[in-house]
Amino acid sequence: MNQSQFGNTAATKSVKDLLSKIYDATSRKDSVYEQAAFYFSGAEQQEIDLLQERETTLQRRLDDANKGSRNKLETALLEVRQELKEKLRQQQDNRIERVRQLKQLARQLLTLISGDTPLETRQLSARALGTIQLLSSTRGRHVAVINQRHKHAYKAILAIRLLDQLLADQLIKNRYVLNKFNDSQQANEAGEVLYSPFLEEVQLPLVIALLLQDIGLQHPQAQHILRGEDGSLDEYRTLSPTERQQLLTVSYEQSQLYLKEGLGLDTYVGNSKAERDLFVYMEQDKQNFISHLLKSAIQPEDGIGNLLKIPQVYVSVVLPSKANYHYGQLPKVSALLKAGVTKGWYPAAIVESLLKITGYFPQGYGITYIPKDSDKQDLDRYEYAIVNGLYPLEPEQPICRTVTRNLTYNTFGINVVVSVDNNLYFQSAQQKLEKMSEERLKEILSKLVSNLEERTTMDLIPKCWHPDEFFTFLKNQNLWNRVDTIRN
After folding, report:
1. Helix/strand/coil (H/E/C) assignment for every residue in the chain
2. 284-310 pLDDT per residue, tens
3. Mind listing the UniProt keywords for this protein, alphabetically (predicted)?
4. Tell me: the pLDDT tens digits for 87-132?
5. Do 400 and 322 belong to one domain?
6. Are 389 and 480 members of one domain?
7. Which of residues 85, 107, 129 is at a domain's end?
């Protein structure tokens, strides 16, 4: 690759900005997960508790004091009360800021994946999911750390598209969701588009629920389980069944507590009592819905909790935060979900609806495939492509953007639907190339992989390739513009 310009397109910057606001590691510590960690540390409340204790002590001393010492104690008590009042005000301001930041973040995510038409919405959703995948490391020591930070946005996007699909498949039974959906449909038909009950009272709370689903892991009790008493354990190790159950319990309980106390309800701004009462009622209603989503995700059966549970299972494979990571195994997510259906863990209809959206190959996955000539005959080589489309007609045939042509990297690729027989992920395609000489296979590899060290460790017939380095170049990030699609 001779590309020389690093950087990010506007679309990539938007995704990176979203990810950093959800979970980052900076000196500002202003991301959602960093704010939660600070709240759970109890530092803010400890300062308030100490001031309240001091206030109580000074009041007791003042009650027992003689006239000579009262002035000094009264002054000290007044200062403590003023400081306490300021700390309580700051605590409330911080809480409101967390609430509004989270709401704004959820809105930003929905804007990122919402188009003017269903086709544009699918394209924007594919771009967002693919970009998150391509921004996530596929090799090295930081895979688990980065995936842990990226997975929240990924599963929230997936959950929104799953909700759409379940509504289309008439698999949503929850009356709250159906009522809001119908209210919005009626408002649209009447031309009333200033307020969408479905957007404001279902989609936004759903995104918030997905972002909060793992927030309890920031609590010191959860960190103790993950890191050990002295912080020496690898938090990304495979936990024992006991540790895992303890962690799930702490995470759920603290996520609920953070929702109700660390966030609480937003405050009304205005002078109308009627508007204030309605605002508080709706805020409470939405918080109850978020709480219900978090609770029902534990044992969703065929209910609304699957909007959290199934995307969570999917993202645990596609963006795993465990040390035993193998990029080539990401497409096994579909087999894992189907196995869960067989074992009775997941509802078959909901898994089927999800796979209608994703197919078997995750967005941003690096596909190696055998191209065909104009006569639809297989050529004597393989090329690189990246999965860039949702809703494939056949789940095992991904929609991809070609990245190489004639073994040369090409910025202006086309979209191609890769068949099973020509996708090197499958054995049937690999067998076609097994007849080829080792010299020819090495020649192909040498043209596609410039890094000699990497080349010596790769299979001569690779099942996939790692496109994250390719994506770091600015000119390679426009993978989702509309181009012609062919079948391969």
Report:
1. CCCCCECCCHHHHHHHHHHHHHCCCCCCCCCHHHHHHHHHHCHHHHHHHHHHHHHHHHHHHHHHCCHHHHHHHHHHHHHHHHHHHHHHHHHHHHHHHHHHHHHHHHHHHHHHCCCCCHHHHHHHHHHHHHHHHHHCCCCCCCHHHHHHHHHHHHHHHHHHHHHHHHHHCCCCCCHHHHHHHHHHHHHHHCCCCCCCHHHHHHHHHHHHHHHHCCHHHHCHHHHHHHHCCCCCCCCCCCCCHHHHHHHHHHHHHHHHHHHHHHHCCCCCCCCCHHHHHHHHHHHHHHHHHHHHHHHHCCCCCCCCCHHHHHHHHHHHHHCCCCCCCCHHHHHHHHHHHHHHHHCCCCCHHHHHHHHHHHCCCCCCCEEEECCECCCCCECCCCEEEEEEECCCCCCCCCEEEECEECCEECCCCCEEECCHHHECCCHHHHHHHCCCCHHHHHHHHHHHCCCHHHHHHCCCCCCECCCHHHHCEHHHCCCCCCCCEEEC
2. 999 999 999 999 999 998 899 999 999
3. Coiled coil
4. 999 999 999 999 999 999 999 999 999 999 999 999 999 999 999 9
5. no
6. yes
7. 107
